[in-house]
Amino acid sequence: MLDLLQYLHHLRLVVPAAAAVVWGIQKLQHKPPPVPAIEPVAAAPNEGDEVQVELPSDKAPQQPFAEPAPLKAVLLDLTLPMSLAAVWLALFHNASSLLADFHKQLEDRDITVASWRKTRDGQRRRVLRYTTPLKGGMGPRQALNTEVLEPVQLGATGFVLRSRCDSEGVPFAAAFANHIQWVATPSGTHSCRLVVTGECQFHRAVWGPLKGQIERESSKGMIKAYRTMGRMLQQQYGAVVSPSSSSSGSGTGSSRRTAVSPNKHAAGRLSVEADATAAGSDAAATAASGAGVDLAADADGANIAALLANPQTNAAAFLVIVVMMVLLWRLAVMQPMLLQAVRGMATAVAQR
């Protein structure tokens, strides 16, 4: 009789624990319903009137151009056989379709590229919105992105443009944003150097190891995307990797990699900075990109989807599984009959 009471006492603890483990496994395996497609960009009242943003004439009085410090990851460092004004028109003019074509090449959906608008505070902004499919086995199926471009400096001797991309529908999206900086300067009579850098910036506290993982995956995603931009600029405008970048890389960090490596068949290869863009155990590999520009690629081309597929990003479910498994194990050791029951339950869950 005493043995029966002890068995029932253990069973009273095991049944809720087993149910919690099953719930945790189902939570990790749960696939959320598809997020509805993003609506086209509409002109909100605070967006202001549509304007055309152009570079000032080289005959107008010019302020000294102060080239800003680059962001952590070098995404592009190209020389285009075009004037500074022509580069601006090709990339950022209201009539240009290059940004929309860029996101189509990335297989983004629901792409809208608004015209430049002057806001009430006098700033000029351009808003891009697009949906990025995520291919991870678990986690969200897509991310809704809003990217806001703002000119920082516009002159006949160079321009600086920055953008901030915020995402919705992914874990920790409210804690960080990806920033891109475009810097263009004349490099000759009829040529222009374009340097694009990026980094992930946090505006809310995130647990240390997870923060590092988000930074690495975000940087890898940006580098992978801008390889496509590099190929487009090469094919459409004859861009080549800037020769001067083979001897000086942009960014910070003692373990920084050189931005460009020489190539006898092309102008060079674009590499990434180890301190912000190294892929953990995945070594960066060189990938051929066609007729002229070889840009560094991660071996598996991993992106933010790899982070979202990690069960540890679902902290609650992961913690429940760990705690309950420990509890079940301790109870099972105390009672061989319970050990057999736990084994049977684990087999049933594994066969699902």
TL;DR of this structure?
The protein is of the alpha+beta class. It contains 8 helices and 14 strands.
Q: How many domains would you count in the coordinates?
A: 2
The number of distinct helices, counting runs of at least 4 residues, comes to 8
Strand content: 25-35%
Number of strands: 14
Just name the CATH architecture of the largest domain: 2-Layer Sandwich
Q: What top-tier CATH class of the largest domain fits best?
A: Alpha Beta
**CATH superfamily membership of the largest domain, which one?**
START domain
Percent helix range: 25-40%
- Structural class, by secondary structure, is alpha+beta
Architecture overview:
The protein is α+β, with helices and mostly antiparallel strands. The chain has two domains: 2-30 and 314-350; 48-308, START domain (Alpha-D-Glucose-1,6-Bisphosphate, Chain A, domain 4), CATH 3.30.530. Helices cover 34% and strands 26% of the residues. It contains eight helices and 14 strands. The protein has helices spanning 2-29, 84-92, 98-105, 208-237, 274-277, 304-308, 315-334, 336-350, and strands at 49-50, 73-80, 109-113, 117-118, 124-133, 142-155, 158-168, 176-188, 191-202, 240-241, 260-261, 269-270, 284-287, 294-298. The strands form two sheets. Strands 1, 2, 3, 4, 5, 6, 7, 8, 9 and 10 form a ten-stranded antiparallel β-sheet that branches. A hairpin with a 6-residue loop joins strand 13 and strand 14. Helix 1 packs antiparallel against helix 7, helix 1 (2-29) runs parallel beside helix 8 and helix 7 packs antiparallel against helix 8 (336-350). The radius of gyration is 26 Å and the shape is elongated. The protein starts with a helix and ends with a helix. InterPro entries: Cholesterol_transport, VASt. Residues 70-241 form the VASt domain. It comes from Chlorella vulgaris.
